[in-house]
Amino acid sequence: MRTMIGLVKEHRGPGAVLKEVPVPVIGPDEVLVRVVASSICGTDMHIYNWDAWAEKSVVTGHVFGHEFAGVVEEVGSRVSHVKIGDHVSAEGHMVCGICKPCRTGRSHVCLNTLSFGITAPGCFAEYAVVRASNVIHNRPDMPFEIACLQDPLGNAVQTVLSGDIVGKSVAIIGAGLIGLMSIAVARACGAAQVIAADINPYRLDMAHRMGADVLIHSGEVKLSQAIREHTNSEGAEVVLEMSGHPDAIREGFEGAANGARVSLLGIPTQDVPLDMGQIIFKGIRVEGITGRRMYETWYQMKGLLDRGILPLDQLVTHTFTLDRYEEAFELMREGRCGKVVFLHGASKPGDLAYNSTDAALQVSLSI
Ligand code: ZN
Fold first, then answer.
1. How far does the centroid of ligand 1 lie from the alpha carbon of residue 89, in Å?
2. Which residues does 202 contact at the CB level (< 8 Å), separation at least 6?
3. Where are the beta strands (DSSP E) in 80-226?
4. pTM above 0.85, yes or no
5. Fewest Cβ atoms closer than 10 Å to its Cβ: which of 38, 85, 214, 297?
6. Which residues place a Cβ less than 5 A from the ion ligand 1?
7. Residues 59 and 137 in one domain
Protein backbone atom coordinates (compact mmCIF):
# COMPACT_ATOMS: atom_id res chain seq x y z
CA MET A 1 0.00 0.00 0.00
CA ARG A 2 1.34 3.44 -0.93
CA THR A 3 1.35 5.90 1.91
CA MET A 4 1.75 9.64 2.25
CA ILE A 5 1.97 12.26 4.98
CA GLY A 6 -1.31 14.05 5.60
CA LEU A 7 -2.78 16.48 8.11
CA VAL A 8 -5.71 14.56 9.54
CA LYS A 9 -8.66 15.87 11.56
CA GLU A 10 -8.80 12.77 13.70
CA HIS A 11 -11.00 13.71 16.66
CA ARG A 12 -14.06 15.87 17.17
CA GLY A 13 -12.15 18.49 19.16
CA PRO A 14 -9.34 21.05 18.78
CA GLY A 15 -6.16 20.30 16.81
CA ALA A 16 -5.09 17.96 14.03
CA VAL A 17 -2.51 15.18 13.57
CA LEU A 18 0.21 14.90 10.93
CA LYS A 19 0.49 11.21 10.14
CA GLU A 20 1.15 8.55 7.56
CA VAL A 21 -2.05 7.65 5.69
CA PRO A 22 -2.83 5.62 2.55
CA VAL A 23 -2.57 7.42 -0.79
CA PRO A 24 -6.20 7.66 -1.97
CA VAL A 25 -7.31 5.13 -4.58
CA ILE A 26 -9.21 6.79 -7.43
CA GLY A 27 -12.45 5.65 -9.02
CA PRO A 28 -13.11 5.61 -12.79
CA ASP A 29 -14.36 9.23 -12.82
CA GLU A 30 -11.70 10.64 -10.50
CA VAL A 31 -8.21 12.10 -10.70
CA LEU A 32 -5.23 11.80 -8.34
CA VAL A 33 -3.40 15.10 -7.91
CA ARG A 34 0.06 15.58 -6.41
CA VAL A 35 -0.54 18.67 -4.27
CA VAL A 36 2.17 21.30 -4.72
CA ALA A 37 0.62 24.22 -2.79
CA SER A 38 -2.38 24.57 -0.51
CA SER A 39 -3.66 27.45 1.59
CA ILE A 40 -5.39 27.84 4.92
CA CYS A 41 -8.95 29.11 4.73
CA GLY A 42 -10.99 30.60 7.58
CA THR A 43 -13.03 27.40 7.35
CA ASP A 44 -9.89 25.39 8.17
CA MET A 45 -9.44 27.54 11.28
CA HIS A 46 -12.97 26.58 12.38
CA ILE A 47 -12.09 22.93 11.77
CA TYR A 48 -8.71 23.17 13.54
CA ASN A 49 -10.06 25.07 16.56
CA TRP A 50 -13.31 23.07 16.53
CA ASP A 51 -16.27 25.35 17.20
CA ALA A 52 -20.05 25.01 17.02
CA TRP A 53 -20.01 25.30 13.21
CA ALA A 54 -17.41 22.51 12.94
CA GLU A 55 -19.36 20.26 15.31
CA LYS A 56 -22.40 20.66 13.05
CA SER A 57 -20.71 20.53 9.65
CA VAL A 58 -17.48 18.51 9.59
CA VAL A 59 -16.92 14.80 9.01
CA THR A 60 -13.76 13.74 10.88
CA GLY A 61 -11.23 10.98 10.33
CA HIS A 62 -9.67 12.24 7.12
CA VAL A 63 -7.29 14.80 5.66
CA PHE A 64 -8.81 18.29 5.62
CA GLY A 65 -7.99 21.46 3.63
CA HIS A 66 -9.68 22.47 0.36
CA GLU A 67 -7.65 25.23 -1.37
CA PHE A 68 -4.92 23.73 -3.55
CA ALA A 69 -3.01 23.54 -6.80
CA GLY A 70 -1.04 20.59 -8.08
CA VAL A 71 -0.12 18.27 -10.92
CA VAL A 72 -2.21 15.33 -12.13
CA GLU A 73 -0.51 12.04 -11.36
CA GLU A 74 -3.18 9.49 -12.29
CA VAL A 75 -6.55 9.56 -14.08
CA GLY A 76 -9.53 7.20 -13.82
CA SER A 77 -10.51 4.88 -16.69
CA ARG A 78 -13.47 7.01 -17.81
CA VAL A 79 -11.63 10.37 -17.67
CA SER A 80 -10.79 11.85 -21.06
CA HIS A 81 -10.41 15.62 -20.58
CA VAL A 82 -7.70 15.54 -17.89
CA LYS A 83 -4.22 14.22 -18.59
CA ILE A 84 -1.29 13.14 -16.44
CA GLY A 85 0.96 16.16 -15.94
CA ASP A 86 -1.82 18.76 -16.22
CA HIS A 87 -1.59 21.65 -13.73
CA VAL A 88 -4.90 21.78 -11.91
CA SER A 89 -7.02 23.03 -9.03
CA ALA A 90 -10.62 22.01 -8.36
CA GLU A 91 -14.03 23.31 -7.45
CA GLY A 92 -14.54 22.03 -3.91
CA HIS A 93 -18.30 21.60 -4.00
CA MET A 94 -19.21 18.18 -5.32
CA VAL A 95 -22.82 18.40 -6.49
CA CYS A 96 -25.37 15.74 -7.40
CA GLY A 97 -26.35 16.98 -10.86
CA ILE A 98 -29.92 15.69 -10.49
CA CYS A 99 -31.65 17.88 -7.88
CA LYS A 100 -33.81 20.82 -8.98
CA PRO A 101 -31.15 23.52 -8.37
CA CYS A 102 -28.56 21.45 -10.27
CA ARG A 103 -30.90 20.85 -13.19
CA THR A 104 -31.86 24.51 -13.42
CA GLY A 105 -28.35 26.00 -13.59
CA ARG A 106 -27.91 26.71 -9.88
CA SER A 107 -25.71 23.86 -8.76
CA HIS A 108 -23.88 26.16 -6.29
CA VAL A 109 -26.97 25.62 -4.11
CA CYS A 110 -27.27 21.87 -4.82
CA LEU A 111 -29.38 20.06 -2.23
CA ASN A 112 -26.85 17.22 -1.90
CA THR A 113 -23.48 18.99 -1.88
CA LEU A 114 -20.40 17.18 -0.59
CA SER A 115 -17.54 19.51 0.34
CA PHE A 116 -13.94 18.59 -0.44
CA GLY A 117 -11.90 18.84 2.78
CA ILE A 118 -14.96 19.37 5.01
CA THR A 119 -17.37 16.48 4.53
CA ALA A 120 -15.01 14.55 2.21
CA PRO A 121 -11.19 14.02 2.21
CA GLY A 122 -9.19 17.14 1.28
CA CYS A 123 -5.77 18.44 0.28
CA PHE A 124 -3.45 18.99 3.28
CA ALA A 125 -1.45 15.96 2.12
CA GLU A 126 0.93 14.82 -0.56
CA TYR A 127 -1.93 13.66 -2.77
CA ALA A 128 -5.61 14.48 -3.13
CA VAL A 129 -8.39 12.78 -5.07
CA VAL A 130 -10.90 14.95 -6.92
CA ARG A 131 -13.80 14.31 -9.27
CA ALA A 132 -12.69 14.80 -12.86
CA SER A 133 -15.79 16.95 -13.48
CA ASN A 134 -14.59 19.37 -10.78
CA VAL A 135 -11.06 19.80 -12.17
CA ILE A 136 -9.99 23.31 -13.18
CA HIS A 137 -7.02 23.51 -15.55
CA ASN A 138 -4.35 26.06 -14.62
CA ARG A 139 -1.87 27.63 -16.99
CA PRO A 140 1.47 25.84 -16.55
CA ASP A 141 3.17 29.20 -15.97
CA MET A 142 0.85 30.16 -13.08
CA PRO A 143 2.76 29.92 -9.77
CA PHE A 144 1.27 27.18 -7.59
CA GLU A 145 1.06 29.48 -4.56
CA ILE A 146 -1.21 31.78 -6.59
CA ALA A 147 -3.17 29.00 -8.31
CA CYS A 148 -4.15 27.55 -4.93
CA LEU A 149 -5.98 30.79 -4.06
CA GLN A 150 -8.70 30.34 -6.68
CA ASP A 151 -11.28 28.82 -4.34
CA PRO A 152 -11.55 31.96 -2.14
CA LEU A 153 -10.90 34.22 -5.14
CA GLY A 154 -13.96 32.63 -6.71
CA ASN A 155 -16.00 33.67 -3.66
CA ALA A 156 -14.76 37.23 -4.18
CA VAL A 157 -15.49 37.18 -7.92
CA GLN A 158 -19.00 35.85 -7.37
CA THR A 159 -19.72 38.44 -4.67
CA VAL A 160 -18.44 41.42 -6.64
CA LEU A 161 -19.99 40.38 -9.95
CA SER A 162 -23.42 39.27 -8.68
CA GLY A 163 -24.73 42.66 -9.86
CA ASP A 164 -23.67 45.85 -11.65
CA ILE A 165 -20.32 47.19 -10.52
CA VAL A 166 -19.11 49.50 -13.30
CA GLY A 167 -18.98 53.13 -12.24
CA LYS A 168 -20.47 52.43 -8.80
CA SER A 169 -19.36 53.23 -5.27
CA VAL A 170 -18.56 49.95 -3.52
CA ALA A 171 -18.15 49.46 0.22
CA ILE A 172 -16.38 46.26 1.27
CA ILE A 173 -16.92 45.53 4.96
CA GLY A 174 -14.33 43.18 6.44
CA ALA A 175 -10.83 43.01 4.96
CA GLY A 176 -10.17 39.33 5.52
CA LEU A 177 -8.73 37.46 2.58
CA ILE A 178 -11.93 37.34 0.53
CA GLY A 179 -12.58 41.01 1.33
CA LEU A 180 -9.06 41.89 0.17
CA MET A 181 -9.52 39.89 -3.01
CA SER A 182 -12.87 41.62 -3.57
CA ILE A 183 -11.14 45.01 -3.45
CA ALA A 184 -8.87 43.94 -6.30
CA VAL A 185 -11.73 42.43 -8.32
CA ALA A 186 -13.98 45.49 -7.86
CA ARG A 187 -11.18 47.78 -9.02
CA ALA A 188 -10.31 45.59 -11.99
CA CYS A 189 -13.98 45.40 -13.03
CA GLY A 190 -14.56 49.15 -13.10
CA ALA A 191 -15.90 50.24 -9.70
CA ALA A 192 -15.78 54.03 -9.45
CA GLN A 193 -14.71 53.99 -5.81
CA VAL A 194 -13.73 51.19 -3.43
CA ILE A 195 -14.24 51.81 0.28
CA ALA A 196 -12.73 49.21 2.67
CA ALA A 197 -13.62 48.87 6.35
CA ASP A 198 -12.09 46.73 9.09
CA ILE A 199 -11.16 47.00 12.76
CA ASN A 200 -7.62 45.64 12.24
CA PRO A 201 -4.98 48.20 11.11
CA TYR A 202 -2.83 45.43 9.59
CA ARG A 203 -5.76 44.41 7.38
CA LEU A 204 -6.48 48.03 6.44
CA ASP A 205 -2.86 48.37 5.37
CA MET A 206 -3.30 45.31 3.15
CA ALA A 207 -6.57 46.78 1.83
CA HIS A 208 -4.59 49.85 0.80
CA ARG A 209 -2.07 47.66 -1.03
CA MET A 210 -4.91 45.89 -2.85
CA GLY A 211 -6.13 49.22 -4.19
CA ALA A 212 -8.86 50.49 -1.86
CA ASP A 213 -9.49 54.23 -2.37
CA VAL A 214 -10.88 54.86 1.13
CA LEU A 215 -9.95 53.07 4.36
CA ILE A 216 -12.33 53.14 7.33
CA HIS A 217 -11.30 51.92 10.78
CA SER A 218 -14.78 50.78 11.81
CA GLY A 219 -13.76 50.35 15.45
CA GLU A 220 -13.06 54.08 15.74
CA VAL A 221 -15.82 55.73 13.72
CA LYS A 222 -19.47 55.03 12.94
CA LEU A 223 -19.20 53.01 9.74
CA SER A 224 -22.42 54.11 8.02
CA GLN A 225 -21.61 57.76 8.68
CA ALA A 226 -18.07 57.35 7.33
CA ILE A 227 -19.41 55.69 4.17
CA ARG A 228 -21.82 58.61 3.64
CA GLU A 229 -19.06 61.16 4.14
CA HIS A 230 -17.19 59.59 1.24
CA THR A 231 -20.21 59.22 -1.08
CA ASN A 232 -21.75 62.71 -1.16
CA SER A 233 -24.08 61.66 1.70
CA GLU A 234 -25.77 59.17 -0.63
CA GLY A 235 -24.32 55.92 0.72
CA ALA A 236 -22.61 53.12 -1.18
CA GLU A 237 -24.38 51.76 -4.26
CA VAL A 238 -22.94 48.32 -3.65
CA VAL A 239 -22.21 46.92 -0.17
CA LEU A 240 -20.27 43.66 0.12
CA GLU A 241 -20.54 42.29 3.65
CA MET A 242 -17.55 40.07 4.43
CA SER A 243 -17.29 40.31 8.21
CA GLY A 244 -20.33 38.45 9.54
CA HIS A 245 -20.34 40.78 12.55
CA PRO A 246 -23.88 41.83 13.58
CA ASP A 247 -22.94 45.50 14.14
CA ALA A 248 -21.10 45.67 10.81
CA ILE A 249 -24.04 44.10 8.99
CA ARG A 250 -26.45 46.66 10.46
CA GLU A 251 -24.06 49.51 9.64
CA GLY A 252 -23.71 48.13 6.11
CA PHE A 253 -27.45 48.42 5.51
CA GLU A 254 -27.47 51.90 7.04
CA GLY A 255 -24.57 52.96 4.84
CA ALA A 256 -26.19 51.58 1.68
CA ALA A 257 -27.65 54.04 -0.83
CA ASN A 258 -31.29 53.98 -1.91
CA GLY A 259 -31.64 51.22 -4.49
CA ALA A 260 -28.33 49.64 -3.49
CA ARG A 261 -27.30 46.03 -3.72
CA VAL A 262 -26.14 44.38 -0.49
CA SER A 263 -24.36 41.03 -0.97
CA LEU A 264 -23.78 38.98 2.16
CA LEU A 265 -20.84 36.57 2.36
CA GLY A 266 -19.63 36.86 6.00
CA ILE A 267 -21.21 34.22 8.21
CA PRO A 268 -22.65 35.54 11.50
CA THR A 269 -22.13 33.27 14.50
CA GLN A 270 -25.26 34.66 16.17
CA ASP A 271 -28.67 36.05 15.28
CA VAL A 272 -28.56 39.50 13.68
CA PRO A 273 -31.35 41.96 14.56
CA LEU A 274 -32.01 44.16 11.53
CA ASP A 275 -34.05 47.31 10.93
CA MET A 276 -36.08 45.95 8.00
CA GLY A 277 -37.08 49.50 7.07
CA GLN A 278 -33.50 49.97 5.86
CA ILE A 279 -34.18 47.30 3.26
CA ILE A 280 -37.84 47.94 2.42
CA PHE A 281 -37.99 51.73 2.13
CA LYS A 282 -34.60 52.04 0.48
CA GLY A 283 -35.56 49.39 -2.07
CA ILE A 284 -32.41 47.41 -1.39
CA ARG A 285 -31.65 44.15 -3.14
CA VAL A 286 -30.16 41.64 -0.70
CA GLU A 287 -28.31 38.61 -1.92
CA GLY A 288 -26.69 35.65 -0.14
CA ILE A 289 -23.43 34.40 -1.59
CA THR A 290 -22.36 30.79 -1.25
CA GLY A 291 -19.53 29.05 -3.08
CA ARG A 292 -18.88 29.90 -6.70
CA ARG A 293 -21.30 29.73 -9.62
CA MET A 294 -20.44 26.54 -11.42
CA TYR A 295 -18.78 27.18 -13.61
CA GLU A 296 -19.43 30.77 -14.69
CA THR A 297 -17.41 32.20 -11.79
CA TRP A 298 -14.39 30.09 -12.74
CA TYR A 299 -14.38 31.39 -16.32
CA GLN A 300 -14.73 34.98 -15.12
CA MET A 301 -11.83 34.39 -12.72
CA LYS A 302 -9.69 32.81 -15.43
CA GLY A 303 -10.18 35.88 -17.59
CA LEU A 304 -9.15 38.19 -14.77
CA LEU A 305 -6.10 36.06 -13.89
CA ASP A 306 -5.00 35.79 -17.52
CA ARG A 307 -5.13 39.57 -17.80
CA GLY A 308 -2.76 39.80 -14.84
CA ILE A 309 -4.71 42.67 -13.23
CA LEU A 310 -5.19 41.20 -9.75
CA PRO A 311 -2.22 41.82 -7.39
CA LEU A 312 -2.58 38.44 -5.70
CA ASP A 313 1.14 38.08 -4.95
CA GLN A 314 0.55 40.84 -2.38
CA LEU A 315 -1.75 38.49 -0.48
CA VAL A 316 0.58 35.58 0.25
CA THR A 317 2.60 36.72 3.25
CA HIS A 318 3.88 33.40 4.63
CA THR A 319 4.71 29.92 3.35
CA PHE A 320 5.34 26.80 5.44
CA THR A 321 5.94 23.13 4.85
CA LEU A 322 3.18 20.92 6.19
CA ASP A 323 5.13 19.67 9.20
CA ARG A 324 5.03 23.20 10.66
CA TYR A 325 1.23 23.29 10.57
CA GLU A 326 0.97 24.26 14.25
CA GLU A 327 2.95 27.48 13.65
CA ALA A 328 0.92 28.19 10.53
CA PHE A 329 -2.41 27.86 12.35
CA GLU A 330 -1.12 29.90 15.28
CA LEU A 331 -0.08 32.68 12.89
CA MET A 332 -3.55 32.63 11.33
CA ARG A 333 -5.14 32.81 14.77
CA GLU A 334 -3.09 35.92 15.62
CA GLY A 335 -4.26 37.51 12.36
CA ARG A 336 -1.03 39.32 11.55
CA CYS A 337 -0.77 37.71 8.16
CA GLY A 338 -2.30 37.62 4.74
CA LYS A 339 -2.71 34.26 3.09
CA VAL A 340 -0.72 31.41 4.64
CA VAL A 341 0.34 28.82 2.08
CA PHE A 342 1.71 25.30 2.55
CA LEU A 343 4.33 24.24 0.02
CA HIS A 344 4.15 20.47 -0.27
CA GLY A 345 7.14 19.91 -2.52
CA ALA A 346 9.37 18.36 0.14
CA SER A 347 6.65 16.35 1.90
CA LYS A 348 7.21 12.64 1.69
CA PRO A 349 6.97 9.83 4.22
CA GLY A 350 9.87 9.72 6.64
CA ASP A 351 11.23 12.99 5.37
CA LEU A 352 9.88 15.45 7.90
CA ALA A 353 13.34 16.29 9.21
CA TYR A 354 14.29 17.42 5.73
CA ASN A 355 11.22 19.63 5.57
CA SER A 356 11.97 21.38 8.81
CA THR A 357 15.36 22.55 7.56
CA ASP A 358 14.11 23.63 4.16
CA ALA A 359 15.25 27.18 3.47
CA ALA A 360 11.83 28.01 2.02
CA LEU A 361 10.06 27.30 5.30
CA GLN A 362 8.90 30.78 6.00
CA VAL A 363 9.28 33.33 3.29
CA SER A 364 7.81 36.77 3.70
CA LEU A 365 6.91 37.63 0.15
CA SER A 366 5.61 41.11 0.61
CA ILE A 367 5.65 42.33 4.20
ZN1 ZN B 1 -27.76 18.86 -6.81
1. 21
2. 335, 336
3. 87-90, 93-94, 114-115, 127-131, 135-137, 169-173, 193-198, 214-217
4. yes
5. 85
6. 95-96, 99, 102, 110
7. yes
